Structure formats: structure tokens, C-alpha cells
């Protein structure tokens, strides 16, 4: 998520083949810097799913089988307590794959789209076309650019007319392994168009779309997403080639021109939080920057990640509170309480730097610094039991509870023009 994440199986530097990542995932109570430096040593090939924030807070690691003993010995000899959250990550990956195949067979035989299943890039792009075909007066598909590997960057535009109306920007899947986000995005886009949540039936959706447009990029990092299906389920970054390094990809949520290249990101191309050679080096990021700038009337940016159950706002790159801190904090508090009212799922909220850690070059800090007052980032379910491998049975519950929080923010933006 905004949080740099959990461990994949197998090596953190993914090979282009599909690896069987025989790994476990551990949760450790973080106690000091030596700890993170030791565990980050390349020899262990440990993948951080949830990074150290502050002493006493949990850290989630995916540890390859060959390093497990060494990591356990290190933790035990330093009296650091840990628990094994996922004994065998591969088992979960296999189950996820089985569920997708089962769902695909069902979809083909019934010509329906299963919102309670994870989907491939092609399936999602096909679904977008169907959505547009079914609701031509409300939804259109625009292309805002191309990815590094020349895939189209598609955005769904929800509009009832007018030109350059005030707009809300939503994105999911900027970190490709956070599959619950793209799945929640699909459900949410569908919710905007179909009963009982749709335009014309739901008074808040109707009010919003009578005056504003919604732009929704569901697969914000298509190269990474395709790679999570073909080769390494745990891939987070883009797939751009890094000059002078055999490590691939840039963290697209550290690549924005907002405190770019500070201590809240890495200058090492092999790191999961590598900020890239320069701000907006990634086509996937630059396309959004160009779109928001040329539109000129975007009033809210909501970027959706997983996992940790948090709702955050700027800043991540500095500790000074944002000028609108009070207002954003109140809005987050209300949104989180609406979310909890559905199934009791508890979220924490606050500025990025207060809630998780220092992170620079993030989407919402850039948006906020570029005049988008209502900039928020969600970290969806869960808090670490499954992490990035959230079972597909939780897609609809996750999307369902997130909807009132999103609606709350969008309605507030509508009622507070600036």
C-alpha cells in the first residue's frame, strides 16, 4: 500500500519465470534500526510487506525458506518476538489461482462477471468495455497514456454532461500486488452505475454526478499487474528497466514530485521503495500528472492501496501539518466511522507521517501541493493476517464497507467548493 508492503514468496528480486516461492510470512515486533538493517541484508532476500514504523509496532516479512532458520536465530538471539502469520505463502497462492480458474469457468458458462473473484488485466479491460456499452450516457473510457511496456492506461469517466466540471480522481492498483484494490475499484465503478447505488436512484450519487465528474483509473500499474499474474504475485513496482542495474522497476508511489528523493524512499533500484531516477520518470505517474494538470479542475484525489486499514492525508514527506490538517482530519474521522458502521472494520486515520512513516514522492502529497485540497489515500483490508493475499471471499465485503466512506468524502467535496 502506501505502506511498502509485505513479502512475496521467493526472492524479492523477481525472476522472469514463475517461481515457487517457498516462504513463510512472519510478524515481528519492531524494536530498533539494527533490526531492519540486518533483515534488509540482500543475502536473506526478505520481502517487507509492512515496513518498520516505530518501536513496538508490527513489521511483516516474507522470508524465503532458505533464510528462515537464519532469520529465526537472529530474532531469537536478539530477544525479538515474532509469530508466523502464513506458514506457506505458496499454499495461499495456489488456492488463489484455483479460485480464479473456478470463477473463470463459471463466468464463461454464464456470460456474467463475478465481482467476488480476482481477474486478469485482459478480463478487467474487457469488463470496462462492457460497462461503457451498458451505460453509454454515463460512462466513457479514455486513454491517458501508455505504460512502460506500451499497455494502454485507461480511465473510466463518469459524467452527466458539461465540460471541465469539478472532478474527483480515484485510482487503484498503483502497487500491482495489492489485488484487493483493483477488485474494489471494479465493484465501486459498477456501483456508481447500477442499482441500488446508481445515478438516478441514490440521492448522493445523483447529486455528485449532477455537478461533478468522476475519473477512475482501476489498473494504474498495468505492467506490474500483468507481471503479478504471469510471474511474481508479489510484484509491487513498475516494470521499467533501471540503467546500470539488473533490478527492475520503480515504486510509483515514491516517484511524484513532492519531497522527491528524500529519506522516505530509497535510491537503490533493487529496493521495493526505489524512487526512480527523477520525479515523474515513470510513464504511469507522468500520465496522471499531465491529466490532472491539463484538466485543471480536479478537487479531490483518492488513491487506494492495501493493506493496514487506514485512511490518510498529507503530508508524508514532512512532519509539519498540512494547512488544512484539521478539516482533512475531521473528514477522515467521519469517513472511517461510516466504514466501521457496515461490518465493524476498524480503521486508523491521520496524516501519512503520523499514521505510518515518512514517505516521500507520494500521489496525494503531490496532488495536495498542486492545489487539490481533498487528497486522501486508503489502505484497505486487512491488518496482516493475509496481507496482500486477501482471500477473494473478502472482495465484496471490503468494497461494500469502503463505499460509504468514499461517498462521504465525495459528497463533502461537492458541498465544499473552493
TrEMBL record:
<dbReference type="GO" id="GO:0006508">
    <property type="term" value="P:proteolysis"/>
</dbReference>
<keyword id="KW-0732">Signal</keyword>
<dbReference type="Pfam" id="PF02244">
    <property type="entry name" value="Propep_M14"/>
</dbReference>
<keyword id="KW-0964">Secreted</keyword>
<keyword id="KW-0378">Hydrolase</keyword>
<keyword id="KW-1015">Disulfide bond</keyword>
<dbReference type="GO" id="GO:0005615">
    <property type="term" value="C:extracellular space"/>
</dbReference>
<comment type="similarity">
    <text>Belongs to the peptidase M14 family.</text>
</comment>
<protein>
    <recommendedName>
        <fullName>Peptidase M14 domain-containing protein</fullName>
    </recommendedName>
</protein>
<feature type="active site" description="Proton donor/acceptor">
    <location>
        <position position="379"/>
    </location>
</feature>
<dbReference type="InterPro" id="IPR057246">
    <property type="entry name" value="CARBOXYPEPT_ZN_1"/>
</dbReference>
<dbReference type="InterPro" id="IPR000834">
    <property type="entry name" value="Peptidase_M14"/>
</dbReference>
<dbReference type="InterPro" id="IPR003146">
    <property type="entry name" value="M14A_act_pep"/>
</dbReference>
<dbReference type="InterPro" id="IPR036990">
    <property type="entry name" value="M14A-like_propep"/>
</dbReference>
<keyword id="KW-0479">Metal-binding</keyword>
<keyword id="KW-0862">Zinc</keyword>
<feature type="domain" description="Peptidase M14">
    <location>
        <begin position="117"/>
        <end position="413"/>
    </location>
</feature>
<keyword id="KW-0121">Carboxypeptidase</keyword>
<dbReference type="InterPro" id="IPR057247">
    <property type="entry name" value="CARBOXYPEPT_ZN_2"/>
</dbReference>
<dbReference type="GO" id="GO:0008270">
    <property type="term" value="F:zinc ion binding"/>
</dbReference>
<dbReference type="InterPro" id="IPR034248">
    <property type="entry name" value="CPA_M14_CPD"/>
</dbReference>
<keyword id="KW-0645">Protease</keyword>
<keyword id="KW-0482">Metalloprotease</keyword>
<dbReference type="GO" id="GO:0004181">
    <property type="term" value="F:metallocarboxypeptidase activity"/>
</dbReference>
<dbReference type="Pfam" id="PF00246">
    <property type="entry name" value="Peptidase_M14"/>
</dbReference>
